[in-house]
Amino acid sequence: MLGLNKKDVTLLTFVAVLALFAPFILNPFPEGSAMAQFNAGYPDLMQRFAIFGIFAIGFNLLFGLTGYLSFGHAAFLGIGSYAVVWMYKLLDYNVLWGLPLAVVISGIFALGIGYVSLRRSGIYFSILTLAFAQMMFAISYSDLLGRFVGTTITNGETGLQVYTSDPQILLGANEPNTPHLFGLVMNNSFFLEVGAWQFTFNVGYYFSAIVMLVMFYLSVRIFRSPFGLMLRAIKSNNTRMSYTGLNPRPYTLAVFVISGMYAGLAGGLMAAMDPLAGAERMQWTASGEVVLMTILGGTGTLIGPVLGAGFIKYFENIFSKINDNVLHQWFSFMPDGLEDAMVFIVHPFIGKGWHLTLGILFMLVVIFLPGGLVEGGQRLAAWIRSKRGGAEENTKSSTEPAE
Amino acid sequence: MSKTDVTRRGVLKTGAVAGAGVALPTIFTASSAAAYTNEPTGGTVTLGFNVPQTGPYAEEGLDELRAQELAVEHLNGMGDGGCLNTFSSKALKGNGILGKKVQFVTGDTQTKSDAARASAKSMIEKDGAIMINGGSSSGVAIAVQGLCQDAGVIFMAGLTHSNDTTGKDKKANGFRHFFNGYMSGAALAPVLKNAYGSDRRAYHLTADYTWGWTQQESIAAATEAVGWETVNNVLTPLAATDFSSYIAPVLNSGADVLVLNHYGGNMVNSLTNAIQFGLRDKMVNGKQFEIVVPLYSELMAAGAGSNVQGVIGSMNWNWQLQDEGSKAFVKSFGEKYGRPPSNSAQTCYAQTLLYADACERAGTFNPCGVAEALEGFEFDGLGNGPTLYRADDHQCFKDVLVMKGKDNPTNEYDTLEIVEVTPRAQVEYAPDHPMFAGGDLGKCNPGA
Amino acid sequence: MDAFLLQILNGLDKGSAYALIALGLTLIFGTLGVVNFAHGALFMIGAFCAVTLSKLLNLSFIVEDPTQKDFLGNPLKVKTPYIESWFGPEVGSVIIDWSVPLAILFAIPIMVAIGFIMERGLIKHFYKRPHADQILVTFGLAIVLQEIVKYFYGANPIPTPAPEALSGVANIGAVIGLDIVYPVWRIVYFCFAALIIGSVFAFLQFTTFGMVVRAGMADRETVGLLGINIDRRFTIMFGIAAAVAGLAGVMYTPINSPNYHMGMDFLVLSFVVVVVGGMGSLPGAVLAGFLLGILESFASMNEVKNWLPGIDQIIIYIVAIIILLTRPRGLMGRKGVMED
């Protein structure tokens, strides 16, 4: 089906089901219960899961297949966002104009940066991409480009946004003044109430999720294609490949551009969900984040990057919001002294301490699960299988990475 | 894609609770359900406190959070009531807002526009926050203000000093209690003239982003109006940690005043570096060389240590003020946390009370009603004397403080002293002043 | 001319911090083959050793003084450091005043210990793992370390001044008849950096231990086959690298008030320095550190900035790109190191 083998169809179906039912899966706790703090089924976070999923999938195409570690991928994310917001400013709020442009422009930038950076390999390549991205960050943060042309290009640290004085030449009389796709407003949500649960179905989320599924499918096809095989050959032995008379550069450049376009699309989608393009999107920390997502999830696996993206975004958005008040609510069933003690123990890890929790988890995952979360999943599956007493063949899963 | 911590037991337990009151599934869209975004229907109302909790401004954010918690306490009738006793409007009764108990949720802006919008969105979408309060940088304030305008909730800005927040980026749903670059200039210029004379040559070092630019523009204009000359304006990268290569050229530039348009870590470092180079011990053009830091904060002054001694700057508010409102706030804050509040803390505290009061007076949480109640609102008793929330641009007008680094601080909080309280009339400006031009307040948006 | 010399001086002084950090980073990389993202955190911890010592020296007993009031109107609590009561106010205050230089002695054992614990407890298990894993685990460690420091010291910068005697300015241009005024402490920092760099090189060059380590850097396996316990020596080198980073941090505190994320501020830059210098090359790292420091200083001169606005923000990256494109392995890198 769709040019995929059976295993990949299963994986794709699995991801599709996860994506389509995310509003249910992510909201397991009833409204108002103490655990509702852990619900992630609200539009903004679900959108972020999908968008950073795309970003990480694209990054993994480059890093997972060829082993080239780019430390400047956030630059393409930012470019995508700026392209979309500029289209809002010049044309109108329909996301259809901006998204293709985001992909094209980030592709052009990736071609230029990739062409130069890929002349080197290893850490020299990483530092070249980092240097380009940091330059672009500095240029957008202080709007240096705008200083030369005399108008604002990136609007500096505030971020590029749409003003009522902008041309918006296609803007119709009844058109919504927030991002939409032919009148389908991204911000709109439908709510389903079942008992104490409330589930949110957001237009923007489903739009991003569908884009993500298409991108996921594309990446599966690339992984399985002769092109993908060639890239893996580059990773395993670059020199030998050159000896066979094949020049690896065009292949790596091609995948660098594709990967940059993924990032541009993700950046474009961010602006499609929320009409603002901030310069911080291009900073090295953002580039580092996608590296972490990919490694954390499982480099070179298909689903790993998506899991890693979800993991990090979940911590950033959920753990940072737990404060002492919430803790006191959780532990309120305990006697006073014990309650305070528990709050005191947990306190450093939540709220303003969410970085600490994330750092510890990075370390734990990479120490105990070298293959990332995917390996964790495999081990769990293997363990369950062995528990079932199945002397079934479990050789397959251990020899083949889950892709 | 999904990461959910479901324990089977938890699901069974909660499932049982929910099962007791099974209702038929209902589907509705946001617009059909409520008159405005997050209309509170139960016995509580939720406020969203969005402050930096990680990154360089984390201390600032922490102090804002303390003040906001205190405000919630006072609104709910706990504690000593703080400024509720001194506030000129008596609409608040200490029984929550409009009879609903006040709750709050917190988020981390990380001092990044993106992260700040994400956490504000999560508070609005997930926790049902009816307003967003706080923040510690202008970029973030403007980004979140735009978001709140689109989402249909009220935004109260926290610490933001750029002219743009209520200038070209002003929004109908956003209000700012803090002062701005123009007001700093207007308050500082006469004091600087008295202290250092009108024949001065100023060298500006300016952080290269929006806030820095607007403050530099304001200070340069105000000091030039009293006769100073602006010798040079050098933009410094935000990421700079060592300012020595920007300070060194000042020595031979012929300037006799250095103006540091920096904030936060930038300001601590640039001031420290300037002192290292012995600038304040120098004589230039027959005059003592001076340094000016137009925007002060207590935390940054503490970070710069003894380097602030004798350096003049401006502030929105300070705990040493002796009016009834300030005294009441400092007392409750000090008794609860054992330290005097910072000026950003005071801003967030006052904003929370003002929002609650506006709801009471409007009789609704509807952002349009609240905004109307706040527009043109004149009050007193929250510090800084008689205060106006101007309707034209949602900027707050009140007295501005000119501060000076204290020579002999007695403790870590006692780093600055008040030189002058500049009366409100002196810092007022027309809503269409060129430094604030180009924006459009738009119409208030209730969301639904 | 004065301005030009001043910027060279300034560049050397900035460069000495870069060079010290890059030196430690390269030591670790060259000996252990580990990409250590936590190296910036070691620099930060060094700085906080100085903060800690100054806090320890300032430990005070508190006497309530009823004649003075604090901000709430309660009697003011007057603090007197124990040191001053033990040694008398004069000697005591001198000790407190010299807390930063004293912190060097305090920091060396702490940093070496931290280095040992890091290497034995964590890094050791990552020798055979891919560089990506090393990056992730050390980055995680860096976050954990800085969050721990933040938990105890807060996020605000903490002023840690230089001793009174060393905090003024000196006219060092007077010798050659020019007027070049420069802060004394920055000159001290430069000399200190030169001393440390010199000692590390001398140690590697002229001792047997150093010779074995250099041999190990060139070909670890062969040295191992010769029956030399290279692992133990590498652990010691890690401790030394940590101490170098820590000392760089200690001495840096009077230049800029330390805060918990100062390590991250230096991290990216120090990697650029190391790579521009050439992976695994100690002289390269030092050279690149000073070079980039000087270039950064020149780029921030007004004459240059007027001509190319914003150049000071991106100069380092432009130079890095140019160098890496013209010299494939940085200034002095060896072939085959970190190229796959």
Structure, described:
The complex is a heterotrimer of chains A (403), B (448) and C (340). In chain A, 64% of the residues lie in helices and 5% in strands. Chain A has 403 residues and is mostly helical. Chain A has a two-stranded antiparallel ribbon with strand order 1-6. A two-stranded antiparallel ribbon of chain A has the order 2-3. In chain A, strand 4 (189-194) and strand 5 form a beta hairpin. In chain A, helix 8 crosses helix 9 (226-236). The two termini of chain A are 17 Å apart. The model of chain A is unreliable at 391-403 (pLDDT under 50). Chain B is built from 14 helices and 18 strands. In chain B, helix 6 (181-196) packs across helix 7 and helix 12 (343-362) packs across helix 13 (367-374). The model of chain B is unreliable at 1-23 (pLDDT under 50). In chain C, strand 1 (60-69) and strand 2 form a beta hairpin. Chain C has a single domain (2-58, 100-326), classed as ABC transporter involved in vitamin B12 uptake, BtuC, CATH 1.10.3470. In chain C, the strands form two sheets. In chain C, strands 1-2 form a two-stranded antiparallel ribbon. Chain C has a two-stranded antiparallel ribbon with strand order 3-4. Chain C is built from 13 helices and four strands. Chain C is globular. By secondary structure, chain C is mainly α. Chains in contact: A-B, A-C, B-C. Chain A binds chain C through residues 63, 67, 69, 116, 119-124, 127-128, 130-132, 134-135, 138-139, 142, 144, 147-148, 238, 284, 288, 291-292, 295-296, 299, 348, 353, 355-356, 358-363, 366-367, 370, and chain C through 35, 122, 125, 129, 131-133, 135-137, 139-144, 147-148, 151, 268, 271-272, 275-276, 279, 309-310, 313-314, 316-318, 320-321, 324-325, 328-330, 338-340.
How are the secondary structure elements laid out?
The complex is a heterotrimer of chains A (403), B (448) and C (340).
Chain A: H1 6-20, H2 22-25, H3 43-66, H4 74-90, H5 95-117, H6 122-141, H7 144-149, E1 160-161, E2 180-181, E3 184-185, E4 189-194, E5 197-202, H8 203-224, H9 226-236, H10 238-243, H11 249-273, E6 276-277, H12 284-297, H13 304-318, H14 324-330, H15 336-346, H16 354-368, H17 372-387, H18 395-399
Antiparallel strand pairs in A: 1-6, 2-3, 4-5
Helix pairs in contact in A: 1-8, 3-8, 3-11, 3-12, 3-13, 4-5, 4-11, 5-6, 5-11, 8-9, 8-11, 12-13
Chain B: H1 8-20, E1 26-29, H2 30-33, E2 44-51, H3 58-75, E3 101-108, H4 113-125, E4 131-133, H5 138-151, E5 154-156, E6 174-175, H6 181-196, E7 201-207, H7 210-225, E8 229-236, H8 244-247, E9 257-261, H9 264-276, E10 283-284, E11 287-288, E12 290-295, H10 298-304, E13 312-315, H11 324-337, H12 343-362, H13 367-374, E14 377-379, E15 387-389, E16 396-397, E17 400-405, E18 416-422, H14 424-427
Parallel strand pairs in B: 2-3, 2-4, 4-5, 5-6, 7-8, 7-9, 9-12, 12-13
Antiparallel strand pairs in B: 10-11, 13-17, 14-15, 15-16, 17-18
Helix pairs in contact in B: 3-12, 4-5, 6-7, 9-10, 12-13
Chain C: H1 2-32, H2 39-57, E1 60-69, E2 75-81, H3 82-97, H4 99-121, H5 131-153, E3 169-171, E4 181-183, H6 184-206, H7 208-218, H8 220-225, H9 230-252, H10 262-277, H11 282-299, H12 302-307, H13 311-326
Antiparallel strand pairs in C: 1-2, 3-4
Helix pairs in contact in C: 1-6, 1-9, 1-10, 1-11, 2-4, 2-5, 2-9, 2-10, 4-9, 6-7, 6-9, 7-9, 10-11, 10-13, 11-13
